[in-house]
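So, could you explain the following?
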Amino acid sequence: MERELSLNEVYKASHVLKSIIRHTDLIAAPTIRKGCDIFIKPENLQITGSFKVRGASYMISQLSDEEKSRGVIACSAGNHAQGVALAAAKCGIKSTICLPAGAPISKVEATRSYGAEICLVPGVYDDAYNRALQLKDEKGMTFVHPFDNPLVIAGQGTIALEILDDMPNVDSIIVPVGGGGLISGVAYTAKQLNPNIKVYGVQAEGAPSMVQSIEHGTIERLSSVSTIADGIAVKEPGVHTFEYCQRYVDKIVTVSEDEISAAILHLLEKHKLIAEGAGAVSVAAAMFGKVPVEGKRTVCLVSGGNIDVTFLSRIISRGLMKSGRECTLVLQLTDKPGQLNQVTHVLAATGANVISVLHERTASAANVNSCLLRVSMETRNNEHIEQIRQALLEQGISIVE
């Protein structure tokens, strides 16, 4: 029979997890939003690089000896898989992880390195999930759900205990939301200890399953999801997590892909922290004013740091564009000598650092005697970009885009 979530359960989970997980200390982060008292809870520095190990470890620790003898099974291509594999290894039991056959090799090998048996399933995530349920029934293994289980939620709730131990006067906590296990545990625990604490959730614009479900008062399944925050790209919330979010979460907002990229870049540059897209959405919400942080002592929960390094350079480039650190302008010039010199003189005078210049003679130009100049440059911020645009316009240089 499934156990109910309670504050005693969260405290019990905290005791069990002391020998397994790492207490991640709060980090002051005043540059996230100027004039605001913001701190980071860096679960990206957790063992396995994500908070997921908390819930998986606690649930597995509570299995009976008979259940442990039959092993556990899970379906994931990311943080949950590694959390389950490590938790099972710590308990000395067998774990099987079903993954889509097309899952990144790095994630497959990371999961295997923690001792799990890997089952690659042809098709997509849903095919792997169905195969996991089939193996569960065939072999009598216990399925470890990534979010919709009270023991998993209790394990994630230990994060709120740590936050309140380190900062008893916290006013608000901002939490990433995918299936809702993390925010359910954090919100439930925080509100039990101090009902005045505000708990805000954040989803990616391309995967707003909990946002829509809460708005419409019923669990809804998205037809598709698309976001760089793959760790929270969940089509449908859980039954338990939907209920806890309704009862204990103050508001859930969304952030754009550009905002997520800017948050990843900010954490990397200002705090030397690598966050995956899902982990950075809480910081994005604070950076871009999606939730009220002015005058509030706020903790942004950075839930994980397992980002594909081959993807990181593209994220950084997007973050630079969003924060006004890089800019590309397309200028229309009269096709005659001296025009390029005029442009570079303006750019030099305004302090822009030119990265590349592409000169195009094209029939698509508005005037047959015109040419297009595509200039990419390093800039200080969005205000600097506007200064550059105004300086070019004052010199009679037309900006196409």
In short: The first helix runs from residue 7 to 17. The chain has a mean pLDDT of 90.
